[in-house]
Every structure is written in C-alpha cells, then in structure tokens.
Amino acid sequence: MDVFWTSVQSVLMIVIIIGIGYVANSAGWFNDKFSGALSKIIMRVALPMSIFNAMINNFKPASFSKLGAGVIYVFLAIMIGYVLAWLLVKVLKVPKGRRGLMITGINFANTVFIGMPLNVALFGSLSQPYVLVYYIVNTALLWTFGVWIIASDDPTGKADAKMDWSHLLPVPLWGFIIAIPFVFITPLLNFYNHLPFLSGATLGYKYDPIAHVATQVYTYGTSGVIPAVGALVTPLSLFYIGIMLSNYGLKQMRVDFHTIVVLAGRFIISPIVMVIIVLIGTKVAGVHLDHVFSSTLIIQSATPTFAVMPILATEYHGDVKFATNIVAVASVLFVVVIPVIMILESL
C-alpha cells in the first residue's frame, strides 16, 4: 500500500507540472519558438548531463553486466510487438498509408520527453541508465526498421524506404558514452570529484561497523554544474509535454477504431509482452533484474507513441491527421494509464 500511495503522489506531481505547462501555454505566455528551444535545451544540454551524472552516481563496473539483459528484453519485446501489430493490420485490413503508422505506433515509445521524467519521478535518478537501455534500443530500431516500415507503406509508391542511420547516435547517448571511462578508470573519476564546481561532489566518510574501518566516500549534491543542469530534465520535460498537449488542442482530438487499436496495442499489448519476457527471463533463463530495472522496462513499454510520428507520416505521404491524433490522444491518456500500471506493478 505504501508503494502504491507513493506512486500515486508521484503521478500527481507529474500531472500538476504538465498542467502548469498546459495552462501557461494556453494563456499565451510562450511564443511559437519557445517549445522548440525548450526541446533543444533538454535534448542537447540537460539530458546528456543528467545521464552522465546518473552514471557517475549510481553505477560501478559490475553494473554493466545487468544492462545487457535489458537490451535483449527490449529488442525481443519490440520484435514480438511488431509481429502482433502486423497480424492486427492484416486481420483488420487497414488501408495503405495507415498500416506502417499503426505498426510503429504500437511498438515505439516517447522515451525521452515522457518516459524519462516519469521514471525519474517514480524511482529517482537511479533508474536513468535503465531508461537509457530502453531508449537506445527504441531509437535504433525506430530510425532503421521503423522508418523502413512507414516508408514501405507509402500509398504513392514514390518514397524510398531508407534507414536513417544519422539518428543512431543521438546527443543524449553521449552522456552515457562519456561517462563510461569515468566509471571504469578510478583516477579519472577522482579528478572529476576534485572539481566540485563541476561535479557537486563532497568528501565524507563511511564507517564499516564490522571491520571497524572508516573509508572515504564522495557524495554528490546539486551544487555542481552537471548535476544542477541535469536536474532540469524532469521539470522541463513535463512543461514541454503540457505545452505540446496545449498545441495539439484537446478539442481537436478524434478517436476512431484504428486509433483505439493503436492505443490498446501501446498501453495494453506492449507492456503485457514485456511482462511476459521479464517473467520468462527470471523463471526460465534465471536472469534476475532488480526491481527498479524490471519496473522501468515495463513502464517504458507503456509510454505514449513516439512524438515524431506525424513528421514521418508527412515525409512518406501517410495519413498525417491520423498520426497526429495518435500522438495527441496517447499523450493525454498516459496520465490515466500510468497509475493503473503502478497499481498492477505494486501488487
């Protein structure tokens, strides 16, 4: 019950901050360029620093062995989801121009602007590297396999189904890459710790009552540049979601049968697939993920559809209104879906 109540309060915090962004944008406080600038600050500055800081704070060399299992789980979940979505599209005889959008809409998540702040709000910065695991696989498959699916469904037949390799090394991933040598090379980490204006690190002592030995340890606050800027990710991302929801125009949203199918696939089928994979991994393969990691994978599998779907629909002559509607409705519904998932997850 305590876990559930904590989750409810976290979700309420998320909803309130999103609401502030929504109301502020609806009141005309922000101009058209603000959301774009905010997106760049989050993606190119705050998020890489946040990921770097989370790696330094929470990860040791031995921790990396756990991440590999997560990569496999996410890959399997998306591939299984693709097969199920493809079957749905065939059975329902979805018209060309919507098929690729439905398949990708069911399987690919908005990991950064919704998944990351949600996870940090629920589990703290410890979960950021775990979110990054989902983000890496989700991004890699979206901009290769996912783009190919949408392009192949071009109703005009004019588009080349090109895989966009340029998105395989996005800016936030550099926070993870740059952190790796700091995690593995102790002198490098010590050098970083000796720059408190940058790291926010303070030296203290931890006493071992069994060995009767006190060892020096660094603790990280938010006074340094990197942790302070990294801490902006969650509130700014939630503001961004509110602004986007305001821009979509809630009154303009329409829910047709195909939209319902995508939402059911995204919010029901996708997390169920991930739960089954995690259970099989634990019970059959003997791969035990810690609670935060497994919860992160399940929650990320139920986050709303990736935000650039309308852009890809435009690029490959798909149903742009349908794509925009899916993103808007899914982004609104996640506020209802997440408490349900947390209730089930806490049972």
From TrEMBL:
Its main location: membrane. InterPro entries: Mem_transp_PIN-like, Na+/solute_symporter_sf. GO terms for cellular component: plasma membrane. It is found in: Cell membrane. GO terms for biological process: transmembrane transport. It is a multi-pass membrane protein. The chain crosses the membrane at residues 6-25, 68-89, 101-126, 132-151, 171-192, 225-245, 257-280, 292-313, 325-344. Keywords: Cell membrane, Membrane, Transmembrane, Transmembrane helix, Transport. Belongs to the auxin efflux carrier (TC 2.A.69) family. This is Malate permease. It comes from Lactococcus lactis subsp. lactis (Streptococcus lactis).
